[in-house]
Amino acid sequence: MNYAELSESLRDAMEKQDTVAIESLVVEFQPADLAEFLHEEEVDVSLKILAHLDIEERAEVFGYLPLNTQFDVSEEMTAEGLAQLLNCMESDERADLFNLMDEDRQTAVLKLMAQEEREDLRRMASYEDGTVGAIMTSNYASVPVTDTVLQALDKVRKTAPDAETIYQIYVLDKLHRLVGTVSLRELIVSRPTALVSDLMVSELITMSPDQEQEDASRLISRYDLLALPVIDNQQRLVGIVTYDDAMDVAEAEATEDILKGGSISGLEGSIKDASKFMLYRKRIFWLLLLVFANIFTAAGIAIYEDTISKYAVLVFFMPLLIGSAGNAGSQASTLMVRALGTGDVELSDWARLFGREILIALALGLTMAFAVAFIGHYRGGQDIAMIVALSMVAVVMMGSLLGLSLPFVLKRVGFDPATASAPLVATIADAAGILVYFGIATAILGL
Amino acid sequence: MNYAELSESLRDAMEKQDTVAIESLVVEFQPADLAEFLHEEEVDVSLKILAHLDIEERAEVFGYLPLNTQFDVSEEMTAEGLAQLLNCMESDERADLFNLMDEDRQTAVLKLMAQEEREDLRRMASYEDGTVGAIMTSNYASVPVTDTVLQALDKVRKTAPDAETIYQIYVLDKLHRLVGTVSLRELIVSRPTALVSDLMVSELITMSPDQEQEDASRLISRYDLLALPVIDNQQRLVGIVTYDDAMDVAEAEATEDILKGGSISGLEGSIKDASKFMLYRKRIFWLLLLVFANIFTAAGIAIYEDTISKYAVLVFFMPLLIGSAGNAGSQASTLMVRALGTGDVELSDWARLFGREILIALALGLTMAFAVAFIGHYRGGQDIAMIVALSMVAVVMMGSLLGLSLPFVLKRVGFDPATASAPLVATIADAAGILVYFGIATAILGL
Questions:
Q1: How far is A97 from chain B (nearest CA, A)?
Q2: What is the distance in angstroms between the Cα of B262 and the nearest Cα belonging to chain A?
Q3: How many CB pairs under 8 A join A and B?
Q4: Is the CB of B261 less than 8 angstroms away from the CB of A264?
Q5: What are the φ and ψ backbone dihedral angles of A167, each rounded to 5 degrees?
Q6: What is the ipTM of this complex?
Q7: Do B330 and A205 touch (CB under 8 A)?
Q8: CATH of A135-250, one of 3.30.930.10, 3.40.50.970, 3.10.310.10, 3.10.580.10
Q9: Which one-letter DSSP state was computed for residue B345?
Q10: pLDDT tier at B297 (50, 70, 90 boundaries)?
């Protein structure tokens, strides 16, 4: 049965309170699919269904729920039930949930957890949002550097039920410092008497827990890693970031950049489920800011009000010209925001790219000028044609160079380059474009 | 040594032709880093350095090069050298390279390859760009369904040097049909005499080779898979897609959507290295199209030329109003493009989201109207204030609803919803905004 059929049947069984059917259906779901089903149901339905799973499966399905839904469901659990669930959850996921609870609830739940898990949860919950620490897990497989392959395999077998991955195994010295990694692939093809220290790779790619998640995701993707070890400033292993969490981070970062590119402030979680007020808040800031930025364009127009009332035809070409400035600028900034975002381009590349953009923008501007010169000639004669063509070359170049440079400037002063959204660049290019256009017009018409 | 130091030293050793130093340096690089180094050097330097690696390492480093660079370097190799390299490359990567070669070269190289590899290459090269077939690899680990754990582990050990992953093992029946998967984790913790058929998972997530890469990447991310099996229409296993290729696909898709959002047609590979002509070509199409779309806005202005020459103050508010229509529209379309792209929102959600947007856009419009009414009053009195405020509510609502709907319409008729770029939505909203604004003005001023 596919997801649609399964959810149909499960909904049916829930209505009929057919416990046997429910029990046999829930185990047929992929954990991620059952989580999606629960996310669409009421909290009390979720609780009932979760109760049909054994604790390991329950923790896995629960971990796939969006964080807010996890919290809503957890609020209806007893402290005992919740503590039991937390014991079995992945260490990064339970820390996120823990951080949402109020203090009383945190204390109550901590008290009921096993000591080792409690300490782990306390430590993991202390890492700030957005840091590597907040997405790493402490459930890794490790062996002492003195082990033989046989000993190591034995240890890995014992770790298997709890570790998030046993395919990368971390080799530690007596002081818990990371000295190497060995893959399970390497272990199973090696002689049982071989030493782990002879097989391990010791050129390691590592991060520290306070670095940015985005960078961890980039390293995992660049080096095709299964997991990235995280060490403290004394080289001690504190956790690992697995590739599946890195994929989630990369997707969330791409979403953030895309929304910023449309001048929407960061929005977490599903766009479909976001509340009206949340969406209002995330959008009004930039809309208002851009209205006030548009006043500069308006002021530019006000300066040339005399010219406009004498040559009303000039207003006709305004949207074409300032639109083109904005569009060329949006293109250039979009390219740079993405290239800076993926690490394709560095701050130091600006000068070379600026040089390249001058030529590209000139070619774009000339093509566009050619296209609009005819319309200019038709609507207003030779003078207007020349004004429109010259202005077009000027505004396309200005918009492009501005769009290219703004993300670099923002990054340089410590802002997210993605703040250089298409609407922001377009608005700035508009204001400058008006001045260029009417400036050229005034000069040529001799006003 | 970090990457910068390593490349510095290697460049140094190359200049001095210090073979011993070169040999010891190249093995210190991570394969992905050495590829980056080679990418920045001339082809002949790359060839020299690659010659210092054994064939397995050479194939791995070579596989990390951008495809165009791979091709340039391969063109300088002998047919023998290239055939040897292709023998060791990953099956999806070599198929991409193979497809770039001219026919004579393809024939020459194929002749020199081992028969098994040749057949694999022929088959893999036949899948179309963008399909699952083009990123899948045929180097997977498989065992017969009749095996015991002991037998399976033995087979996996033998496959280990060639398989891209041995952590997911595919269980096949006599007709090569996929009947289940078992993880290496499961195998190493189970009794040696247990049957694979008792351990395997048989509820499988699979794809067919002609489906879209994007969907494979989405499934891998959703279900946290290490690899996704690909089967033909007779259930036979033809390959697997691994998580690292899925990450690359997800990144490329995000880049494509971001660039489309800035009205730049799809650009493959590095933005930094793209040629000037290529960038010109990718940008001019939309710039020209949008100029002609802006003519509608201009035509709107032409209709109201009389109104404008009587009330020049109306021109002052033009950029504020049409800018806001465009900005609100860009926001709404950006949200929907991303939500449709990640699968957060489906076509069938349109009506509900449209309803939500009416309320959000009304709130946004009222806030904006409040902000500009004062400026309207200051610059032109009560009538102008009312015109500006009314127009603002109308254009923000119109822009938002249009921006929200356009991606759905595009998707419905079979286009990529990401074509609803910020500049396109802004341009359409501008044209409609002009009509609304001057229409309201003409009505209120009784012209």
A1: 20
A2: 5
A3: 326
A4: no
A5: -85, -25
A6: 0.83
A7: no
A8: 3.10.580.10
A9: S
A10: confident
